[in-house]
């Protein structure tokens, strides 16, 4: 169905789409290549929400007429008016005669309609070329559109015996500099970084992106059932949007103080008096948050996993042993049978500096 030339041009379109890895949120990452007689005449990618889409940038980049050209696009062209006009119209008006698409748009406002409109205009449409790669690039956008929740990626750093901190709470630094820089790249591609009140109190993190080429700082999400966050916490001082989910809002004065500091307090209790994590995901999706990176302690890690909300895990394993008294990665209920174990599917294992990075997904998210 697809030729080696088709694969080459779509691969290039995917590399272009990756240039928007840190900047397009809440929009998907998209690349477009225009060819005529098997030579590239234009290319572009979507750089930022509210700015031109990949197809428009590709059309603008060509110095010759695109009439009769083929467009290789990593995502189905939009067919509705959003922050920008529909790209389908631009492709039709330019005289494009063939469009090859990696994946259909999961957005219900598009979802195949773009392909139909192109075909109705007499344009040949083919879909599914390097689809898996395109989907992986936009895994959070797909999750939000299809399941009304962000893609939840839980990151943890531990010793080889699975310990994240000494018993006294000291954890800086278990992993090396290369692993920490890699972690900042995962932060940079995320729409938000989540942690719990325990980590805020023990580590006082900034939850900001450093060591990565991005001017955008992700939102900061704090799960704090009793609204115990200190007003002098670094994450409140380091800029960026802060969302605090709590189960108790008796302290009006505390809420007002946090509001003056720019933090948004969202009260969302469950029947046990803790934050309702599943409802929180629905709220985050409504805020157009595609990907969340969780950097928390064993309590919140375990609660999210037990609720079935974690899609992917990133483990950084350092060549150390910290012993029985050190703190573990995840708190889960006691298992009485191996049939109760939590299964994951390993996706990638590689060395990052002196440490090992393991990426694994839960089966329901594969």
From TrEMBL:
List the GO molecular function terms.
Answer: 5-amino-6-(5-phosphoribosylamino)uracil reductase activity; diaminohydroxyphosphoribosylaminopyrimidine deaminase activity; NADP binding; zinc ion binding
Bound how, and how many: what does the cofactor note say? Binds 1 zinc ion.
| UniProt protein name | Riboflavin biosynthesis protein RibD
InterPro entries xrefs = APOBEC/CMP_deaminase_Zn-bd, CMP_dCMP_dom, Cytidine_deaminase-like, DHFR-like_dom_sf, Eubact_RibD, RibD_C, RibDG_C, Riboflavin_Biosynth_HTPR
| Binding locations of substrate | 171, 187, 203, 207, 210, 295
Q: What does this protein do?
A: Converts 2,5-diamino-6-(ribosylamino)-4(3h)-pyrimidinone 5'-phosphate into 5-amino-6-(ribosylamino)-2,4(1h,3h)-pyrimidinedione 5'-phosphate.
Annotated CMP/dCMP-type deaminase domain residues: 4-117
Q: Which cofactor does it need?
A: Zn(2+)
Where, in this chain's numbering, is Zn(2+) bound?
53, 78, 87
Which reaction does this chain catalyze? 2,5-diamino-6-hydroxy-4-(5-phosphoribosylamino)-pyrimidine + H2O + H(+) = 5-amino-6-(5-phospho-D-ribosylamino)uracil + NH4(+); 5-amino-6-(5-phospho-D-ribitylamino)uracil + NADP(+) = 5-amino-6-(5-phospho-D-ribosylamino)uracil + NADPH + H(+)
State one Pfam family annotation: RibD_C
Binding-site residues for NADP(+), renumbered to this chain: 157, 173, 199, 225, 297-303
Q: Which family does this protein fall into?
A: In the C-terminal section; belongs to the HTP reductase family. In the N-terminal section; belongs to the cytidine and deoxycytidylate deaminase family.
Share an example GO biological-process annotation for this protein: riboflavin biosynthetic process
From the UniProt record, give the pathway where this protein acts.
Cofactor biosynthesis; riboflavin biosynthesis; 5-amino-6-(D-ribitylamino)uracil from GTP: step 2/4; Cofactor biosynthesis; riboflavin biosynthesis; 5-amino-6-(D-ribitylamino)uracil from GTP: step 3/4
């Amino acid at each position: 169905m697809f030729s080696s030339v088709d694969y080459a041009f779509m691969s290039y379109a995917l590399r272009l789409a990756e240039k928007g890895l840190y900047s397009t949120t809440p929009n998907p990452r998209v690349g477009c290549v225009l060819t005529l007689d098997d030579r590239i005449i234009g290319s572009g990618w979507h750089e930022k929400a509210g700015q031109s889409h990949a197809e428009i940038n590709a059309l603008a980049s060509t110095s010759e007429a695109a009439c009769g050209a083929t467009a290789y696009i990593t995502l189905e062209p939009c067919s509705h008016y959003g922050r920008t006009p529909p790209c389908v119209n631009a492709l039709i008006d330019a005289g494009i005669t063939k469009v090859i698409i990696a994946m259909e748009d999961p957005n219900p406002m598009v979802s195949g309609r773009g392909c139909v409109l192109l075909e109705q205009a007499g344009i040949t449409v083919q879909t599914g070329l390097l689809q898996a790669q395109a989907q992986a690039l936009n895994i959070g956008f797909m999750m939000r559109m299809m399941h009304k929740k962000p893609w939840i990626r839980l990151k943890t750093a531990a010793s080889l015996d699975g310990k994240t901190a000494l018993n006294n709470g000291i954890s800086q630094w278990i992993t090396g500099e290369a692993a920490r820089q890699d972690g900042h790249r995962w932060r940079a591609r995320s729409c938000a970084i989540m942690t719990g009140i325990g980590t805020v109190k023990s580590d006082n993190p900034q939850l900001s992106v450093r060591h990565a080429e991005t001017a955008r700082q992700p939102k900061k999400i704090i799960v704090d059932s009793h609204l115990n966050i200190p007003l002098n916490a670094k994450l409140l001082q380091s800029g960026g949007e802060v969302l605090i989910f709590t189960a108790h809002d008796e302290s009006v004065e505390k809420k007002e103080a946090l509001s003056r500091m720019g933090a948004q307090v969202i009260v969302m209790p469950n029947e046990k008096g803790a934050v309702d994590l599943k409802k929180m995901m629905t709220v985050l999706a409504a805020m157009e948050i595609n990907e969340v990176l969780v950097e928390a302690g064993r309590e919140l890690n375990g609660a999210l996993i037990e609720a079935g909300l974690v899609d992917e895990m990133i483990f950084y394993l350092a060549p150390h042993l910290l012993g029985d008294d050190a703190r573990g990665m995840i708190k889960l209920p006691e298992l009485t049978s191996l049939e109760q174990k939590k299964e994951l599917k390993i996706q990638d294992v590689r060395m990052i500096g002196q440490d090992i990075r393991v990426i694994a997904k839960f089966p329901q998210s594969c």
